[in-house]
Design brief:
The complex is a heterodimer of chains A (229) and B (519). Chain A has one domain (2-228). Chain A has eight helices and no strands. Chain A is mainly alpha-helical. Chain B folds into three domains: 47-397, Neuraminidase (6 Propeller); 398-480, Alpha Horseshoe (Serine Threonine Protein Phosphatase 5, Tetratricopeptide repeat), CATH 1.25.40; 482-518. In chain B, the strands form six sheets. Chain B has a six-stranded antiparallel sheet, with no helix packed on it. Classes of the chains: A mainly alpha (229), B alpha+beta (519). The A-B interface holds A 77-78, 81, 83, 147, 149-151 and B 39-40, 303, 458, 461, 463-464, 466-468, 470-471, 474.
Amino acid sequence: MARAYQKEESKEVKRERRAQNFAKYLASLKFGFYCMTHPIDGFWKLTHEKKGTVGAATTILFFTILVRILKLRYTSFMFLQVYWEDINIFLYIASILFPLALWVVGNWALTTLFDGKGRLKDVYMGTCYGMLPYPVIQFPLMIVSNFVTIEEGQFYQVLSVLSLILCLLLIVNGLAQIHAFSPGKNLLFTVASLFAMLVMVFILMIFFSMISQGVAYFISIGREMMFRI
Amino acid sequence: MKNKIAKIVTTLAVVIGIGFSGLATVEAGEDNYTYTYDYWGDVQESPDVYSVARVFTYKDLGMDKNITNAESLFVYKDRIYVCDTGNNRIVVLRRDGADDLVYEDEITAIKGTDITALSEPSDIAILETLDADDEGNAVTKEYMFICDRGNARIVKVDMDLNYILQFNKPVDPAITEDSAFKPDKIVVDTAGRVYCSASGINKGLVKYESDGVFSGFIGATRVAYNFTDYIWKKLASQEQRAKMESFVPTEYDNVYMDREGFIYACAGGMDEEDLRSETVDAVRKLNMLGSDILVRNGAYYDGKFPVFGDLYWGGGGGVTGPSYFKDVTVLDNDIYVCLDQNRGRLFGYDDQGRMVYAFGGTGNMEGYFRKPVSIEHMDNDLLVLDQLDCSITLFIPTEYGSLIYRAMDQFDHGDYDEAQASWEQVKMLNGNYSLAYIGIGRSLLRKGEYKESMPYFEAKYDDENYSRAFQQYRKLWIREHIITIIVIILAIFLVPMAIARVYQVKEEIDNADIFKLRR
C-alpha cells in the first residue's frame, strides 16, 4: 500500500523534475550566448556555478555539425566548391567528432594532474560552448552567400575567418576559466594538449596495426594447419 | 528451386559483367585521343576536334631526297615552306585542294652576294608590304627573310631570291666576340623589323631595325630563383660558384607573330615547380616593348589552370616531366595552338587562357608523332612537322571542331543568337565540355537574359560571369519589386511600433484616474 503511494508520488515528482530539467536545459542553452559575449565571466559560471549542462553542450555540437554539413550544399558555389565524389558524410562528421574527443580526453588527462579544476564533463562542456559562434555566424552567412557577387564576397571571407578565430579564442579562454588557470599556464597546457592528441593518434595507430598483425598471425597459423592436415 | 538458383546466378553474372565492362570503358578513356580538363582538373574525354587528312613524306610529295633534320614550317598564302635544315635547302609546297600538298620548288641558294649557297636554313619568314613602283603607284611587294644559320646571318631577299640585305651577329657587350652567331627562329613585323631567337643568346629576342641595324634585345624570359640554391651560392667559394648553374633566362624555342603583330614565344625545359607556381611561363605574348600580355587564367591551386599543357606528368610510356612547348601558332580567331614535343600533343587555348582542346600522342600511327618540331596553320587547318618521321601531318577540323570555331566567331561578331545555337550543338556532341556551357551562358548574358544564363555558369563554376549575370539580375529584380520591398521594410518597423502603441494606450486607459475613481 505504502509502496503504491510512493510510486504515485514519484511519478509526479518525476514530471516536475523533468519540467525543471527542461527549463534548466533551455536556460543553459541560452547561457551559451552569454558565454559568447562575456567569455571570462561566462565560462567561469559555466562550471563553477553550474550554469551549463551537458545536454546544451551536445545541442551546440549538433548544430555545429549540422551547419557544417548544410554549408556544403547551400553555400554559393562561388565561395565553396564541393567535389561531391570525394564526400563521405560519415567521415565528414567524424572529422569534427574525432579531434574533439581526442582534445577533450587529452586536455583533461593533462590538466587533472596539474591542479586543473575541470572534470572530463566540464572540459567537454567548455569546448562545445566555445563552438557556438560557428553555427551562429556561419548559418546566416551561408544564406547571404547566395545573394552576393564575387566582389562583395570579401565580407563573406572575412566573417567566415572571424567566426573560426572567435571559436578558437573562446575555447582556449574557456578552458582557462574552467581549470582556474592563469593565462600563461593555460597556453602551456593548450599546446601540451595538442601534443597529447598527437601521442594518442600515434598509440591508436600502433594499436590497430598490432591487432591486424596479431589477427594475421593466427590466420596464417590456421592456414598452415589446414595445409598439414 | 534449381531454376531459381540458375536465375540468380545468371543475374549476378550479368550484373558483374556490366560492372566490369563499365570499368573497362573507363580505363580505355584514359588515353583517349582528344580530351579537355574540367573545373576540377579531371580529364574529360572529348570527340575529336581535328582529324588527319593525310600524312606526307618525301615520296608522297614526289621529291628525290628525304627531308632530314627539318626544323621549321612557314605558311604564306597557299604555299608551305619547309626548312629542310639537314639538306641545306628550303622546300616549297603548294596546297592543292582540301587534302593534298604538291611539291613546287626548292631554294638552295640566293643570288647577288658572296656566299650564295644556304647552309642549315633554320627558319623563314615572308613580309608583304605596300611599296611604290617607279611611276608612284602602290604595289604590294614581298620579301623573304631566310635564317641562314650555317652562315651566321639572316638574309633578306626578294621573291626571285635576289640579295637585298643581311642581318649579322649583333655587336653587344653581352655577347662574346669569338662565339658563333646561330640564328634559330625569326619573325618579321609589318615594318620589316626582324626579331630573332638565337642559340646562346638568352637576353631575349634579338631585334633588328628594317635597315639591318641591331637595336637591342626584347622580352627576356623570367628567371626563377631557387631559394635553396641561392643560399648555397652565398655560402659557396668562388670555384664552387663557377661550377654551379647560374640563374639566367632561357632561350625561346620558337616565335610566332600573330595577325595583330604580337609575338608569341614559347620555351620548354622549365623546372616543374616553377611552372606550377607560375614563376616561369611556357608561352608568352610579347608586345612591341617586349612585355608579356598573355591572358592567364589564374593560379594552379585556384581551380584554374595556367597555360602549360598537361596537368599530370606521370611517367607513362617512358615520358616524364611537364609538356615541352616546341612551337606555337595562332589561328585567326586568336586561339593559339601549342605543340608539345614531350608527349607529341597539341594544346589549343583561347584568348582567355582556357584550354579549348588537347589531342595527340607519341607513336607511329596517323595523328601521332615521334619528334614534332614545328606547327603552322592554314585557316583552321593545322600542319605539323615531325623531325624523326620526316613527315608533315595535315589536320583538318572535324564537324565538332568547326562547330566550336564557328560558335566562337559568331560570338566575336556579336551574333549571340547564332552563337548560342552553335554552343548548344557543341553541348549536344560533348556534354562534358565546360566551354560549351560557359559559351551558352555568355551568349545569354549578352542578350540580357541574366536569370537564364546563371545555371550555365553555376554548372561549370564560372564565378566571374555568374557574378556579372547575378548583379544585373539582382538590380532588375529590385527595380521590379521595389514597392513590395519598401512595404515589407515599413511593415517590419511599423507593425511592432503600432502594437506597442496600442498596448501603451490600453495601459494608459486602464490606469487612468477616472476609471480608478469609479472603481
